[in-house]
Each structure stands twice: as C-alpha cells, then as structure tokens.
UniProtKB/TrEMBL annotation:
Leading EC class: oxidoreductase
EC code: 1.2.1.-
Gene3D superfamilies (UniProt xref): Aldehyde Dehydrogenase, Chain A, domain 1, Aldehyde Dehydrogenase, Chain A, domain 2
InterPro entries: Ald_DH/histidinol_DH, Ald_DH_C, Ald_DH_CS_CYS, Ald_DH_N, Aldehyde_DH_dom, Aldehyde_DH_Superfamily
Protein family per UniProt: Belongs to the aldehyde dehydrogenase family.
Domain spans labelled Aldehyde dehydrogenase: 27-476
The name this protein goes by in its record: NAD-dependent succinate-semialdehyde dehydrogenase
Keyword annotations from UniProtKB, A to Z: Oxidoreductase
A GO molecular-function descriptor: oxidoreductase activity
Source taxonomy: Bacteria, Pseudomonadati, Pseudomonadota, Alphaproteobacteria, Rhodobacterales
Length: 481
C-alpha cells in the first residue's frame, strides 16, 4: 500500500478517555482485496474489559445529568468531523472492508446523519402524565436512561453499525462499551476519535477489541452493564441473548440476519424494479442484512427479470474498493467466499440454472463473481440460509397468495420488498408479509428517521426513528401525593 493516500492505523482501544493497547497481543487485520496484512490490532485482556465497563459506570451519572441539548451538541460536532474527514475515513473503510469508495462515502454520510438525528431526537424524550385514579396523588411515567450499554457490531458496515448504536445510546443519556468487528476496526477507531475530538467526556464511549466470545461473556456478565445490543448472525445473537438472560435479565436489542424476499407481481413496473434492485443487490457485494435475496417473480415477467439482472451482473467491474471505477469489491473475508461458493454449487446440483457468475475470481483477495441463479428449488440451501453475497436467486410465482406464502416460509423476518401497481395488493402485503420492514416499489427501508428491526428469528428491538431511542430508556412510575 505504498501509494495509499491515507495511512491505515495505528489501531488502538479507547478506555476511560485514554488510547491504549500499543504493543499488546492481538491479531492482524487483512486487506480483502489482496489478502495482505494492513495492521496489527491489540486485544483487550479481561482486566481491560473490566476497566472499560467501570469507566462507563463512572461516567454515567454526569453524562445523564447533562441536558439533552448539551449532549446533542457533542454528537452534532462529531457528525461534522466525520464529514470533514470523509476522504480519509472512506479510504480506511474501503481498504479494510472492500466496498467501493463511493459506497464508503455514503456510509459516512448516513453515519453523520444518524448522529444528527439522534442529537435532535434526544431532546424529545418525553414522559407522560397519567390521569389519576386516586384523589390527591399525581401519576407520572418518567423515561430515564437504562445505564451503561455493551454493544457488538459486525464487519459489513464498519462505521454505520457503531454509529447507530452509539448515537442512540449517548443521546438517551447512556454510556457505552463498544466492541466492533476485529476484521474491520479502522473505521470504528476513527468514529471514536471524532467523538472524543468533539468533546465527549472520558469514559462515555469506550472502544475495545478482542476474542469475541471472551469479550462478550465478560462484558455481559459485568455488574455495571445494564443493556446489550448486537448486530450479527442469528446463532451468535441467540447465544448473547441467553447470556444476558442469565446475568440478571439484562435488556437486549438483537438485529440478526435476514433472507429478504422480493415479490415481483404480475402488474409490476419491471423497469423500475430492475433499476432499483440491480444496484441494491450488488451493493457491498451483497453482504447486507436487508439485501434483496429471494426474488419471487411472476411467471409472465420472470425471464425478462433474469435477463435484466444478468446484464447488471455482467456489467459490474470487480476490483479493490479503493480503485477508481470499481463497481463491486471483494467479499470481506475468505469465509464468505467459501460459504457463497458452497451455496451456489448446492443450488446448481439441485437443478438451479446458473445464468452468470458462480465462482471465485482471480487468485488474490476474496473476489466472487456477481452471480444469477434462476429457477432455484425451495430445497436448495441458498433458499433457506442467508447467502450474504452477490447472488441473485429467482423462482416463479403465479399469484399474490403464493407470493405471501413463499415470503413467510422462512422463520426470518427482517426486510421484504414488493413491486406492484395495485393498491389492493399493497394492502394484502402490508397485512400478510411477516417482516420488520416492507418496501413497496421502493428499497429505502433503512434511514436514520425510520424504525429498523426484525421479527421472528431476525431479532427484536428497533434502531432508528423515534423507536430507536426506546431500547435505551427505562420507564419509572412516579406516584406523588
Ligand atoms: P459470525 O456469526 O462468526 O459473526 C457475526 C458477527 O458476530 C461478527 O461481527 C463477529 O465478530 C461477532 N461475534 C461472533 N461471535 C461472537 C460472540 N461470541 N460475542 C460477540 N460477538 C461475536 O459470522 P461471520 O462469518 O462473521 O458472518 C456470517 C454470517 O453472519 C453472515 O452470513 C450473516 O448471516 C451474518 N451477519 C449478519 C450481519 C447483519 O448485519 N445482521 C452482519 C454480519 C454477519
């Protein structure tokens, strides 16, 4: 990386306002476009985790006592710093995670907007006056910050996932210990630096890295931690929720996987569907929990839909995220390459038609060809397991009822999408599709202003919108005579 315009690293942890970890044992961070080492990442020892949790507990009373306006000013300053530093942070994010620079810039913009939204929304955390049933006694429901939070975020959005959790927690008056993914730590370090430079008091945000299982067990068990928030796979989420239950029924927000169905009805505007879904499918090489995944297309439109998606896939230029002209970067790690290849091979063995792509590309880095699989049977693993990769998977449908049945076939329910011109069909979908977010003739289901979260195995609790503050608040009844 001698010609890199911005250096990657050094990577450190932030505990009680001090950057720490220089020289500590840990692991290497790799560039997914080359497989080469980018930097060394220090790991927290159990003592470091205890110090981080204790720092969050010590900082909590003063932070919750500050006015929401005051807290919001710091968040807004941090948002502006992210925007000022966007060139450098985009480079770091794209280098460690693989997404094209343009997508990294959008992620930075949305992260800054999330800080701004939460800064404002923190000023509108109201309680409630309850009409009294008892003469001489006033009843009030008070909303108060839950306390120090432990947050765990994944590698697919190295900046936005931390931003969502940290912004809502801090705006609500909570303090936090954040453990981002060890595979993409650089953007999270920059995020913490922006908040510190914006004037965040010591201990309000602590940043740690380590062996995930050890870090989460230690933090969740710690007396100081009152709430857990996790984004990642269903299996890990279930494990963390069980730990949280064991250590005092601690509150959880779980944003787990999805397997988003896309229902393209007979009366859909096919051109609009293709224009929106093509770029959306291959964004971040498909490694998005709300990525459109199972495309159930009406028989009369199916073949044209497959052709359109195949053209889109063939037109994408693969390359390092930081290279000009890259349309799709590498997958984030070698696990994904192996997993996506296995899913594609299984589908083909079960009778799916491989229209384009289908294999890893090159002998350097973790590239996988944008892939289209048509007429995929429901028994194929890829129809049942989240592919988290650049694969379009199609099947034919004949009616609205069948579309809804197929959409609800899996126990997951994060995002779902539909394309139709019929108001009656939209009403049936709104009622019938089991999902946390439903986009109809639209894909923009993730914005700072709107609630984001899943149902069933996709988890519980909202991030974003007014609803995104709720998980960081507890309700206290004050009955005053
Ligand atoms: P994984 O299950 O090993 O890890 C998922 C995330 O959880 C990673 O960020 C990891 O660091 C973290 N993690 C793992 N064990 C943990 C523990 N005991 N305590 C705390 N954090 C822990 O899987 P992976 O190989 O990284 O990704 C595979 C699958 O995970 C994907 O196919 C996808 O289904 C899912 N995933 C979902 C999201 C999302 O946005 N919902 C993000 C990343 C991965």
């Amino acid at each position: 990386m001698t010609d890199a315009p911005h250096p990657y690293g050094p990577l450190e942890m932030l505990i009680d306002g001090k950057w720490t970890g220089d020289g500590a044992a840990g692991e290497d961070v790799f560039d997914p476009a080359t497989g080469e080492v980018l930097a060394h990442l220090p790991h927290a020892a159990p003592d470091d985790l205890d110090r981080a949790a204790a720092a969050a507990a010590r900082a909590f009373p003063a932070w919750r006592a500050r006015s929401a306006l005051d807290r919001g000013r710091i968040l807004r300053r941090a948002a502006d710093l992210l925007r000022d530093r966007a060139d450098r942070i985009a480079w770091i994010l794209s280098t460690e995670q693989g997404k094209p620079l343009a997508q990294a810039r959008i992620e930075i913009g949305v992260s800054a907007d999330t800080l701004d939204w939460c800064a404002e929304e923190g000023r509108r955390i109201y309680g409630r006056i309850i009409p009294s049933p008892v003469p001489g006694v006033e009843y009030r429901a008070l909303k108060q910050p839950v306390g120090p939070v432990a947050a765990f975020t994944p590698w697919n959005f190295p900046l936005m996932m931390p931003a969502r959790k940290v912004a809502s927690a801090l705006a609500s008056g909570c303090t936090i210990v954040l453990k981002p993914s060890e595979e993409t730590p650089g953007a999270a370090v920059e995020f913490a630096r922006a908040l510190q430079d914006a004037g965040l008091p010591d201990g309000v945000l602590n940043l740690v890295f380590g062996v995930p299982g050890m870090v989460s067990e230690r933090l969740i068990a710690h007396d100081a931690i009152r709430k857990i928030t996790f984004t990642g796979s269903v299996g890990v989420g279930q494990h963390l929720a069980a730990l949280a239950a064991r250590h005092g029924a601690k509150r959880c927000t779980m944003e787990l996987g999805g397997h988003a169905p896309v229902l393209v009805m007979e009366d859909a505007d096919l051109d609009r569907a293709l224009d929106l879904l093509g770029p959306f499918k291959f964004r971040n090489a498909g490694q998005v929990c709300i990525a459109p995944t199972r495309f159930y297309v009406h028989d009369s439109l199916h073949d044209r839909f497959v052709d359109g998606m195949a053209q889109m896939a063939k037109g994408l230029t693969l390359g390092p995220g930081t290279a000009p002209g890259t349309g799709m970067g590498p997958l984030a790690n070698p696990r994904r390459v192996a997993a996506v290849r296995d899913l594609v091979e299984d589908a083909v063995a079960q009778g799916a038609r491989l229209v384009t792509g289908g294999a890893p590309v090159g002998n350097r880095g973790y590239f996988f060809a944008p892939t289209v699989l048509a007429d995929v049977p429901e028994t194929a693993r890829i129809m049942n397991e989240e592919p988290f990769g650049p694969v379009v998977v199609t099947a034919r449908i004949a009616s609205v009822d069948e579309a809804i049945d197929r959409a609800n076939r899996l126990p997951l329910g994060l995002a779902a999408y539909a394309f139709t011109r019929s108001a009656a069909t939209i009403a049936r979908l709104a009622e019938g599709v089991e999902a946390g977010m439903l986009g109809v003739n639209a894909i923009a289901v993730s914005t700072p202003e709107a609630p984001f979260g899943g149902v069933r195995h996709s988890g519980y609790g909202s991030e974003g919108g007014i609803e995104g503050m709720e998980p960081y608040l507890v309700t206290k009844l004050l009955a005053q005579g």
